Amino acid sequence: MGISEVFRSAAFRVAVVFALVVTASTSAVFGFVYWQVATSDITRLRTILVDEATKAAVEPTDQVERELARRLTGDLRQLEYVGLFDADGKHLYGNVAEMPPVPVDGTAHLIEVHRLNGTQTEPVIFVAQRRPDSGVLLLGRSLYEIYALRRSVLQALAIGIVPTILLALLAGALLSLRASRRLQAIRHAIKRVMRGDLHERLPVHRTPDDIDEVVRAVNLMLDEIVRLMNQVKTVGDNIAHDLRTPLSIMRARLERGLASPSEKELRATTQDALADLDRALATMTALLRISEIESGLRRSAFASVDLAEVCREVFEFYEPLAEAKSITMRIDAPAPVPVTGDADLLREALANLVDNAIKFTPQGGKVEIVAQAEGPSIRIADNGPGVAPGERDKIFKRFYRSADHADIPGNGLGLSMAATIAELHGFALRLEDNEPGAAFEMAPPAKPSAGSEPQPDAARSARRSASRTMTSI
């Protein structure tokens, strides 16, 4: 970055304004101190002279002369002009031979007079006091030293302001150069992102400050953009991956049906192709549904929901299906469990979990739904075959199906959708061993203990791993 760019930068302009403000503030403080010192000295001098003149005016003449002689010879800084005159104005004593144009009123007056030892003039404070014998006592003090002090202070202030301004401008230039280089690095990183390098991130400073807060927010935004783009790509890959097989099967069946001379066989082949097409459409609908949920758009419609009521609705819907399979269903939701969320989505997540439990539980088994206000949490447990330890991190992946249950219909998206809905509501979907069987619990994520790193729940880790896997297909 060139020097001209530094001078044009907003940071340098701010530094200049700051330097001017500091300079003005410093000058104001110096000026106030200077004014206070000068004023207090003159005020004090006026008071002293009036007091001395008042006291000396009533003393005998010989005593006044002795006192004035001592003051003139012993302490020249206090009394520099002294004059004692009789009632007719004749000079009796002192170094002032003629009465200056000062009112004889016992108050202090500032006038310019010629110095006693030269022709130059100087400011002097005089006090003329009338004596009892109608004579006049004149006392005076030069302000030369006070005025000299004023000039010294003004010169020192003038000399000190110049380097202050230069140092402030230099510091402003250095700080603005540093800030400009940092902003330039951020600008270059943004340009690389705009050119398509979405893995580029804005540089973070070693010492956190306000700019770093903005940079971190932008980096988080870029992470979310990448996540959403990967999500869109994953949905497309998933749809292509899952439709390729059924479409190939449909094509082969239709070719065989067209090649067959029997109309009955052609009709049966067409019906099978329609069934495959329905399964493909159901899979596509489920994938699009997961993408919609992951986008978080449904949060705007969140309202108060009673999880216990949702559990009872799902229980009533699936109880006939369980009875048809000779499975005993039980629900434990005695008290309301209020949460904030989308009732339809929560009902859909719970339905997927209950459907899976009924699907994998053998005849004569049990399925239990428990809703607790503590947490809050929902637990769906069965006494089926359970999940093998090696598969517990895989069942939340999209399209994953265990080889031991390949004969059971499904597309491997139910648990992924349930985990997505749980995460949207701030819950975590966890798998536990029911001994025998499996238990899925939807509850707030467990808080990490002090000093430990937070661990993601299995469902979220599995789904993120699935997204990375599907993205690379």
Can you summarize this structure?
This protein has 3 domains: about 1-200, no CATH class; about 230-295; about 300-470, Heat Shock Protein 90 (2-Layer Sandwich), CATH 3.30.565.10. It is built from 10 helices and 12 strands.
State the order of secondary-structure elements, H for helix, E for strand: HHHEEEEEHHHEHEEHEEHEEH
Total strands? 12
Number of helices: 10
Q: Main beta sheet, described?
A: 5 strands, antiparallel
Q: Which structural class do you get from the secondary structure elements?
A: alpha+beta
Low-pLDDT windows of residues: 449-456, 458-473
| Backbone shape | rod-shaped
Number of domains: 3
What would the average pLDDT be, to the nearest integer?
A: 76
Strand content: 15-25%
Integer-rounded radius of gyration: 49 Å
Distance between the termini: 45 Å
Describe the fold and architecture:
- A five-stranded antiparallel sheet has the order 2-1-5-4-3. A five-stranded mixed sheet has the order 7-9-10-12-11.
- The protein contains ten helices and twelve strands.
- Helix content is 55%, strand content 15%.
- The two termini are 45 Å apart.
- It is rod-shaped and about 155 Å long.
- The protein folds into three domains: 1-200, no CATH class; 228-294; 301-471, Heat Shock Protein 90, CATH 3.30.565.10.
- It has helices at 3-8, 10-57, 61-74, 144-194, 210-259, 263-294, 307-324, 343-360, 414-424, 458-471; strands spanning 81-85, 91-94, 108-114, 121-130, 136-142, 303-306, 328-332, 338-341, 366-372, 377-382, 428-433, 438-443.
- With 473 residues, the protein is α+β, with helices and mostly antiparallel strands.
- Helix 2 packs antiparallel against helix 4, helix 5 (210-259) packs antiparallel against helix 6 (263-294) and helix 5 packs across helix 10 (458-471).
